[in-house]
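Re: folding output
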Amino acid sequence: MNRNCVIIVAAGKGARMKANINKQFLNLKDKPILYWTLKVFEKSNYVDEIILVLAKDEIEYCKSYIIDKYKVKKIKKIVEGGSTRQQSVINGLNAVGECNVVLIHDGARPFINDDIINEGIKYANLYGACACGVVPKDTIKIKEKSGFSMETPKRNTLFCVQTPQCFKYEIILESHKKAYKEKFEATDDTMIVEKYNHKVFLYNGSYSNIKITTPEDLIIGEKILDNSEEVLT
């Protein structure tokens, strides 16, 4: 078996966007953000199927206005999201069938590319767990509660983690099951596998692989699309 599956998590409400709809359904170049995300995986030769995790009250809307409208064929299952991102990922993992590598990706991160997907699958097969990302451009400070700077880590030791985060299926599934049982809460999936003694290989993502989170990100996203022939074709 050499099947690769991506779980696209799109159940969050995105409060920082301050919009009256889920941020994944806001438009970039007259098409929803989630459309652009799905399109990359739909076209990828490295991904066999997509599992889409959505809020319960948005499933029918997404089917009509994105999946059916734009003929996304690789979506094998649509799963109802949970109360947290972590629960949404568990729901997605439980829906996976036969699969070797699982990629977990943010629905609001539309500028992923095929090279990053391919590298993630390669390193997941080699090491069991990996994540893409970039070295921060800014100097990072560790701040005390009082507001003063406590420490300045060396920038070349820091890494801004993006998605997809890629895993051998049995590793991420078992780690999530343990975390659920022990009520361990994490901000991303690499934290969960690290908790259960799996090392995570970090590889180069892209500074363009941003997550659309705030209104300012929509402006940046429009510029990225303007300059990206690959995404627009």
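--- second protein (sequence, then structure) ---
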Amino acid sequence: MKIPLIIALFIAELGAVGVGCNKDVEKPDNMNAHIQTTRVKVAVGSHVFEVILYDNPTSHSLIEQMPFTVELEDYAGKEKIFQPKQPLNKTGAPKGADPNVGDIMCYGPWGNIAIFYDEAGYANGLIPMGRINDVDGFVKALTASSSVTFKIDN
């Protein structure tokens, strides 16, 4: 009787991961499926870093504001933050999230964007938006300049 249960769980898992999605990547641990993404370039001086933004209303509303340049500030020795020019859409956002190093999240109550470069725990109000691939290089580049330009990767 264990085998049918295992097969049922396997089939359910296949349905949950969205087999056949276009441009899919795995969601962070706090989300349970594959999702569509948008590639974005983030420039710090002459250094350019790839960012992958998830397919959700919060990320879409940030993408609609691109290109833009902002000054990043350090927050709590764990994240680099900035306030977008326009408020972001938080429709369907989770109650909170558990960020990993490299995650880009919106902190809903304040409306700011956080790029995590150190471990942090679960927090109510965090909305997963994407990931930066080379967070160590990104933080190192920020030692020379805190001015960052976001643009869609065409």
